[in-house]
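Schema walk-through. Below, the input block comes first and the output block second. Nothing else is stored per chain. Lengths vary across the set, and this one has 54 residues.
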Amino acid sequence: MQNKYRLTAMSAVFSLGLLSACAGGGQDDNEPDVEEEPSEQQQQNNEEQQEDKE
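--- output ---
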């Protein structure tokens, strides 16, 4: 009987740990950071677009 409670408690701890690790949260990596400078490729693309408009 004691083993049953121990396994139940271990399962609960494992489940909570798994759920909290997969919760995500935090910053979305797909969104650009406003403080970062654009990459060279983006700068080149912007320059090409401006040349095409002229």
